[in-house]
Predict the structure.
Amino acid sequence: MAEPRFLRLSDVAEILNISAAQTYALVRSGELVAMKVGGRGQWRVEREQLEAYIRRAHEQTREFVASHPFGAEDATAELD
């Protein structure tokens, strides 16, 4: 079965392992491109847009790690 082109925010939340509220915040901030469809204005994220967001997140993480070497004092403050 082919993967759906458009994902609900709940699907995106599950894929990213984050809450629905965090997913909605990503959309509202513009970090994750989405669109409203239908008469009720339901949010949908195109699968390619999700993949692009993930690629950007990987790149930003690589840049962060490169600029904050392991053992640096401020790097430990970033850990959850």
Summary: The mean pLDDT is 91. The beta strands are 6-8, 35-37, 42-46. The two ends are 38 Å apart (CA to CA).
